[in-house]
Design a protein that fits this description.
Layout: H1 2-8, H2 20-38, H3 46-49, H4 55-58, E1 89-94, E2 109-116, H5 127-142, E3 175-179, H6 198-202, H7 206-221, H8 238-245
Helix pairs in contact: 2-8
Length: about 260
């Protein structure tokens, strides 16, 4: 049935919708998922049974609340001031801890380490929050914020929230650990300060690296060598990841 559907299905290009190859693969995967849900559990091989599970019913969406207040009568004590940055070096690590699923995997944990701190943080208590926001911005830039242009006119087609997506609740790391080197100072930086915005944004590229490792693992299950090169350009969207996995129709099995 999957082979017949693969040969007969007709998918047309419709920018800024995902590529034809991804939409075709998604149609086959959803059809396969439906067949798995109809197959008797006694005949279904255990390794394929998870394919019929509805992910959104088994995974809870993260929830959070944030409160803040400001009192102008206390200014200039708590009044916002311009932030000056100096030189900085940092390192980060992101691990993809989930198997390849039928929907975007959520970022669970990320480690952003300042290996060479060159100054003293001027912003009290706000430094880690600034890094978290900057890192999340970098994650969005490298994953979901894909800009699509009309190939003939150059018009930007992803010009609204309907088709241009920023990171959501499940895209923000649940376990984000940020460390700064203590008691450090640099005479080269402005007032011995540290940068907390731009470096953390650049560290967002660690997420596509983790995704690439997950894609390599998926390709190995399809019989491809782990060191075979495949091209995937940013942003690493769901459709690009699915195409890079190179899953074959023959791999949709039951028994």
């Amino acid at each position: 049935a999957l082979a017949i559907l693969s040969n007969e299905i007709e998918v047309t290009e419709n920018l800024p919708m995902p590529p034809v190859a991804y939409r075709r693969q998604t149609a086959l995967a959803l059809f396969y998922k439906g067949l798995l849900s109809l197959c008797p559990q006694s005949k279904l091989k255990s390794r394929y049974a998870s394919g019929s599970i509805k992910i959104h019913e088994t995974r809870k969406v993260s929830e959070a609340q944030f409160f803040y207040e400001t009192d102008p009568s206390l200014w200039p004590l708590t009044k916002p001031i311009p932030r000056l940055n100096g030189l900085v070096q940092c390192a980060g690590e992101t691990k993809y801890v989930d198997d390849l699923v039928q929907q975007p995997g959520e970022v669970f944990a990320a480690f952003v380490l300042s290996t060479v701190a060159l100054g003293t943080i001027v912003n009290i208590d706000a430094s880690k929050a600034l890094v978290e926001g900057a890192f999340t911005l970098g994650v969005g830039y490298n994953t979901c914020e894909q800009i699509v242009n009309d190939p003939h006119t150059g018009e930007v087609l992803t010009n609204r929230t309907w088709n241009y997506w920023v990171p959501g609740a499940t895209d923000i790391p649940q376990d984000m650990r940020i460390y700064f080197r203590k008691r450090s100072f640099s005479y080269e930086a402005i007032l011995g300060s540290k940068a907390t915005g731009e470096p953390a944004t650049c560290m967002g590229v660690a997420v596509p690296f983790a995704m690439r490792a997950a894609i390599v693992a998926s390709r190995q299950e399809s019989g491809k060598p782990y060191n075979e090169w495949f091209q995937i350009d940013g942003a690493c969207t769901v459709d690009k990841i699915a195409i890079a996995c190179s899953t074959k129709v023959e791999e949709f099995q039951f028994l």
